[in-house]
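Researcher: I'd like a structural prediction for the single chain below. Treat it as a standalone chain; there are no partners to consider.
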Amino acid sequence: MAAGATKLKECPRDCRGEFVPLEQDGCADFSVKEGQVVGSHEYHIFQTALRGGTDCGNDAGDERTKTCPVDCVQTWVTESDARCERNDGQDVVTARFVVQAHPKPGSDDAPGAACWDWAPRTEKCPTDCIGEWRRTDEACDPGENWVDEIVSHRYVITRPAEPGYPNNNTPGEKCKDPDCANPVDCRENEGKMESCPRDCRGAWDYATDALLEEQCTGQGEELTRKFTIHTPKLLTGQECADKGKTAAIVCPNGDSSTEEPGAPQNEDERTLGGAALGSSVTSVRKIPNPRELDLDLEVEPSLLCC
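Model: Treating it as a single chain, here is the predicted structure.
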């Protein structure tokens, strides 16, 4: 070697490499089961060791593994004792989303899929019909405008029948009422009839005694007028005030008003002893006729003789 020449020494070189994440996460493969161990990284060498340099400690292509996280596992479970307590359209639970496996993180602390908070599956129970009778505006007139009956009520369905659980195949009960045309199937707006009361109506055959007296023949006869019912009262109608009543009169006697020619014209001209008008008898006593008085009197026969 020539004087002054430099001798070069080649230095050693250490290996350089690292684990690089796989392009596709092994846990994401659908064929991989939850909790399964899969490769997560692959070792890549960027610089090899030379001249006694330190080795990387891993070969190129070495894998690092991990345990996949466990996702929540849930499934629908049918309610075996599902039933409707009452038929009013309330919900009945038919199935619940049950957790079969709770989530667990993987070895790299990656979380498993959380459980879903699903509401239970429900179905509507059947709905039974509800209805009621409601009063109408029609009213009875017991007087001149009386009719036999009116539509007093109309049926109103406030909640119709609807089918329901299970599978919406069970019908709700129809509206029932003994006053409906069909007591086990009342219909909307059907009417209920009500009998109307009626006032008694009648009349006197002669309205007054004076009208009855016009029928007298002058024989002193007794005549009677009466009240006749043409339309009897019904239910709570008013009774005729004169029901069953009669009224009688005694007609004038025509004989008492018939006088012979020359007969006295008044009581003052009736004299004792049959004295004629213009006679010399000056003392005259008026003798009342007991037949014309409403008195119970006894008259001496001597006073009535001629």
